[in-house]
Amino acid sequence: MEKIKESTVGSMVADNLKVASVFDKYGIDYCCKGNRTLEQVCKIHGLDPDTIVEEINSAIDAPSKAGYDFNNWPIDLLADYIEKTHHRYVQKAIPEIVRKLEKITDVHGEGHPELSDVLMMFKDSAIALTNHMRKEELVLFPFIREMVNEGSPASDQMPLNSVTNPIRQMMIEHDTEGERFARMSAITNAYTVPSDGCNTYKLTMDMLKEFENDLHLHIHLENNILFPKALKLESAS
Prior knowledge:
Blueprint: H1 2-5, H2 9-15, H3 19-25, H4 38-45, H5 49-61, H6 75-108, H7 114-150, H8 164-187, H9 199-236
């Protein structure tokens, strides 16, 4: 049990994705702040570590649903998956969420002024995430694939000569978006629909929550699995 408490939350989810359900339940950030130990996050959230460990073990022992063992995937395959699954989801979801946020802000904004802030923050996030994903797709991910195929890519063939600085920058940008969505969640009371909210209001909050959940997994796959393995591969070459 003590060993589990000393493990980082990011590494625990990387080892077994089932653990994420426990952390999601208690609002524990295992993606952007995945380098904290379980004992540390329990102190921050005022949780009993023994209780959380019991829930983690129960989640791990529960019958497995269909899923993927991302931690054992080749990193070029994982990069492909992130791009084709999470990047495409973000690209598809952004315009629809913006339209619905604009609609409910027009209708409900007077009684719920926080909607204007959510709309502004989501638009800022949309721009930042679009630029962020473009850098990954055009520069970082091709470099990682080249490392897998060739060992260490030649500097005259790729726009980078190391993954270290790009990964550091991507993680900084992940922190920014994680904090932005934490603020959106806070001012909407975890995307709770008010008593006077219409069906579109509810759908919009559901879409925002789904977007945030997808972003958490997206960032987790990069911060806790893809990036550490890319750095390890480069250092071994």
